[in-house]
Amino acid sequence: MSEREQWSSKVGFILAAAGSAIGLGAIWKFPYIAGQNGGGAFFLIFILFTILLGLPLLLAEFVIGRTAQDNAVNSYKKIAPGTKWHWVGILGMITSFVLLSFYGVIGGWILIYLFKAITGQLNGLSSEQYTAVFNETIADPLLSIVFQLIFMLFTIIVVSRGIQKGIESASRIMMPALFVLFIILVIRAVTLAGASEGIQFILKPDFSKVTSQTLLDAMGQSFFTLSVGVSVMVTYSSYLPKNQSLPHAAISIVSMNIFIILLAGLAIFPAVFAFHLEPNAGPVLLFNVLPTVFSQLPFGMLFFIAFLVLFLFAALTSAFSLLEIIVSVISNGKPEQRLKWSWILGLAIFALGVPSALSFGILAEVKIFGKTIFDFADYTVSNVLLPFGALLISIFVPLKMKRSLLYSELKKGNWLKKGLFEAWYITIRYVAPPLIVLVMMDVLGIW
Q1: Residue from 255, 243, 252 nearest 411 by CA
Q2: Membrane-spanning regions, if any (predicted)?
Q3: Domain extents for the chain?
Q4: How far apart are alpha carbons 235 and 232 in whole angstroms?
């Protein structure tokens, strides 16, 4: 039997897991959702939900993976043999497959913009011209597919090299670089004339803008941003040695995630306000509004290139985890099978993503329930599959794992107070399920 791979260190695991969590949800989705929900109040509520809901769910996935020391499907089989609970792992695979198919499309857009910025094609354009460039870019079928493929090829190559030589090695370079680039951008943004209004927007809560929708958006964002509900963290924690502390790792990842989101807010909103632009521009904020901002700064395109690089790093580290969960199941933990299945599955995901890449051009008129192919895939993953997976995991852990086993697993590598364990157990058993159901009912328009 082949020996199962492991992370070389706790730091390597934390950087890889944080990289999985710190993806497009943190850098692309959070700024425009915060912009649409009043800024600081939304950020504060998001932090509370991340700590009270996201962290317990993250720990729940960690416990499953480290207890079973197996892939996302076999982990559920080992803990609950003879039941159908392994379908939670299969659901995670399906979710990751669909998610990565359109995630690769956005990754391709980032690469296109990086190429255009480096070659000077984005210099000196007006706001209207940047909008036109973005619309033309995503509508170009050949450009979209070629760069989507390049993004997926890089993901495949890294995952095919394994846990230590591939994912961990790449994360050790990309995550520190991401932090450094972000800090440089934040320093530039907060020193702009008129930046103080943007700083106040993200740091000074205005609770008069809080509505029930704000609360629900913040709650949903809290576990979408942490990659919970896909069993990705079940997979990653299964490579973690038994002597490592799960609570310490989870707290580190959540802290890094919140810090990156704060940096994203401080890099974007001061610049947006300094140039009197709207912070609630929506999903196009990073592709339309930010080029407009950077083009008006000295050496602005250099800063925009730096932003695109960190954006790319965040997208790639998340893509690694999405492909890894699928490869680990299909290869059944056999290192000698990893190379073959990384390429087969990665290219299959690319093929599935082609219709999403074309849904802004030649397939724009193709609708599924009134949505483009890209929007339908995004909606299905974000509003149905992810929260449903998180709900099932929050039910599975207290139902199928003994309280004594959970306490023993969470104590390893660290002294854990019984009171903190009880708080986590109560949250995962009694608090998380109804809150997740509440979010699902809202996003699906059931109430």
Answers
A1: 243
A2: 12-34, 40-64, 85-115, 142-163, 175-203, 223-241, 253-277, 297-330, 342-364, 376-399, 420-441
A3: 10-443
A4: 5
Structure tokens given for 330 = 């299909």
Residues in the chain: 447
Cα–Cα distance, 36 to 213 (Å, whole number): 11
Q: Render the burial of 265-288: b for 16+ CB within 10 Å, e for the rest.
A: bbbbbbbbbbbebebebeeebbbb
* Cα–Cα distance list, 166 to 5, 16, 445 (Å): 12, 10, 42
Q: Please give the structure tokens belonging to residue 96.
A: 């990751």
Which pLDDT tens digit goes with each residue over 33-45? 787 777 888 889 8
Is residue 289 within 8 A of residue 128, CB to CB? The reply is no
pLDDT band at 413 (very low <50, low <70, confident <90, very high): low
DSSP string, 9-57: SHHHHHHHHHHHHSSHIIIIIHHHHHHHTTSHHHHHHHHHHIIIIIHHH
Which residues are CB-contacts of 283 (< 8 A; sequence separation ≥ 6)?
28, 29, 32
Contacts for 430-433: CB closer than 8 Å, 24+ residues apart = 431/52, 431/53, 431/56, 432/53, 432/56, 432/57, 432/390, 432/394, 433/391, 433/394, 433/395
Res 285 pLDDT > 60: yes
Range with lowest mean pLDDT among 13-27, 176-190, 206-220, 303-317: 13-27
pLDDT at site 228: 81
In this predicted model, what pLDDT tens digit does every residue of 152-165 receive, in sequence order? 999 999 888 876 67
Q: Are 53 and 221 in contact (CB under 8 A)?
A: no
Encoded amino acid at 112, one letter: I
| Integer Rg of the chain from CA | 21
Burial of 94 (0-12, 13-18, 19+ CB in 10 A): middle
**Tell me: domain 10-443, CATH 1.10.10.10, correct?**
no
Each residue of 100-134: b (16+ CB within 10 Å) or e? bbbbbbbbbbbbbbbebbeeeebeeeeeeebbebb
Check: CB of residue 72 under 8 Å from CB of residue 415: no
